[in-house]
Amino acid sequence: MTPKILIIGACGQIGSELTLSLRTKHGNENVIASDIREGSDALMQSGPFEIINAMDFDAVKNCVEKHQITDVYLLAAMLSATGEQFPMKAWDLNMNSLFHVLNLAKDGIIKKIFWPSSIAVFGPTTPRENTPQHTIMEPTTVYGITKQTGERWCEYYHSKYGVDVRSIRYPGLISWKTLPGGGTTDYAVDIYYKAIQDKKYECFLSKNTALPMMYMDDAVRATISIMEAPSENIKIRSSYNLGGISFTPDTISKVIQQHIPDFTISYAPDFRQAIADSWPKSIDDTNAQQDWNWKHEYNLEAMTKTMLDNLSKSLS
Ligand code: AKB
């Protein structure tokens, strides 16, 4: 049966690409995009769109009932860097929106939920190399605390009420179509814009700060793939580790220099350095590989070529 999908937070970095992929797959009329503001022409013109505040339970429920929604992808969230500026707003948005969709599923109004978690669930006491699925998790950012708490609630709603909720711990996501906003990993997107526009970039993280990252095409594929897997294969109902690429600002700048030889990078670490220092350098995603056949495709070289080719066209 074709699912009837609602994407909450469809105009953001993940939502804008995921919405178009799901529309191609399931038919434009079966994928309702929603956000607190309007998005790109591609998103607005390719299928139904609703203005919804993810914190307004009645608005979410009315939209679900109006469109007879079966599956909800909840992508509205405040990310790590912005969350440190607005701790209570981050908590309210990230937690209330999750409870709204979990409760709709508990009451049998929707069937399936996708909710993204993040590498931010880990903290300074977590092993940082090849971070295991099950390990110490003592996040020190508000965003990380909301994601860790959310993971516990997802698992609880699954085990107590049978809610079919599925989740991935996204690493930093890199794409050229929509800018990210308010994250610590955002430098790895900004750097490509500045390389093309100014041939120089001042990085807010230090030279050797390694972080797990992933090209957006891989992230969208992973999201669709975990949602399509048979329910019995999804053995982890908190959230799955997802590995991709791991690199430092120094490494990515050297790969960019292979395409733009006069590109230069300088370093001026700010408050985001402490956030990055508390996160893993690389991720072990064996469980995702075993349970739903996950395998990433893009390496740093392939991603850099794709980013520079596409941004050069769209910025010219
Ligand atoms: C952020 O940097 O806050 C996000 C994330 C890793 O979840 N990109």
Automatic annotation (TrEMBL):
InterPro entries tied to this protein: Epimerase_deHydtase, NAD(P)-bd_dom_sf, NAD(P)_epim/dehydratase
Pfam family for this entry, one: Epimerase
Domain NAD-dependent epimerase/dehydratase: 5-243
SUPFAM superfamilies assigned to the protein according to its UniProt record, in alphabetical order: NAD(P)-binding Rossmann-fold domains (SSF51735)
Source taxon at top rank: Bacteria
Gene3D superfamilies: NAD(P)-binding Rossmann-like Domain
Family (UniProt): Belongs to the NAD(P)-dependent epimerase/dehydratase family.
PANTHER family: L-THREONINE 3-DEHYDROGENASE (PTHR42687), L-THREONINE 3-DEHYDROGENASE, MITOCHONDRIAL (PTHR42687:SF1)
Protein name: NAD-dependent epimerase/dehydratase family protein
Source organism: Pseudofulvibacter geojedonensis
